[in-house]
Amino acid sequence: MEDLRGVVSDARGTLETLAGKIPGYHGYKEKEMRREADKILRLFLADRFQEQRSKLSNVQNNLASEGKLEDLGLLERVMLQLQLLIDRLKVAEYGYAGLFDAVRIKEEQLDALYMYDNALTVSVDQLTEIMDKLAIAAMAGEEIRSTANDALLLLQELNTTFDRRKDAILTVGQSQ
Fold first, then answer.
1. CA dihedral in degrees (23, 28, 34, 37; nearest 10)?
2. CB burial of residue 113 (10 Å; 0-12, 13-18, 19+)
3. Which of 6, 9, 13, 145 is deepest in the core (most CB within 10 A)?
4. 95 phi/psi in degrees, rounded to 5
5. Which domain holds residue 16?
6. What is the rounded CA–CA span in Å between residue 99 and residue 101?
7. What are phi and psi for residue 24, nearest 5 degrees?
8. What is the mean pLDDT of residues 44-50?
9. CA atoms of 115 and 32, how far apart (whole Å)
10. CA 49: distance to chain centroid?
11. Are the C-beta atoms of 147 and 130 separated by less than 8 Å?
């Protein structure tokens, strides 16, 4: 995954480049670009996780149409964890702090937030691998409970890790 912070920075137009010469504007704009890069990254990740959700939905539909209902409860729990993660990625805080907030968000903290979110790209690949195994096993009529449990555990871990997302900002802020 390409570092989107550079892409967002390179996309600035002539007017924005000129405005960057205004005292105080440059720092503000740098923060905005970091926030925008993180938002783009999270939406990209949400889309990739949504692809896995579609695979899971197809598996559920196939099992239901074949009358194999015994594992649908487990797959529904996987689906709920996956949807929770997708929703959280779409609406996560962008690293904003108001003018009078006690916590001031600095560029280093926004970079830490971006790197934290960027680490989820590895998790998308892990989940893709598990979902592919799950789909293949389901189509072959094989046992899927073990693979579904692997998916559930990974998604629970990702949601727990996402709970600590704010710590990425606070930890960097305390070290200065």
1. -100
2. buried
3. 9
4. 90, 25
5. 4-174
6. 6
7. 90, -20
8. 96
9. 16
10. 8
11. yes
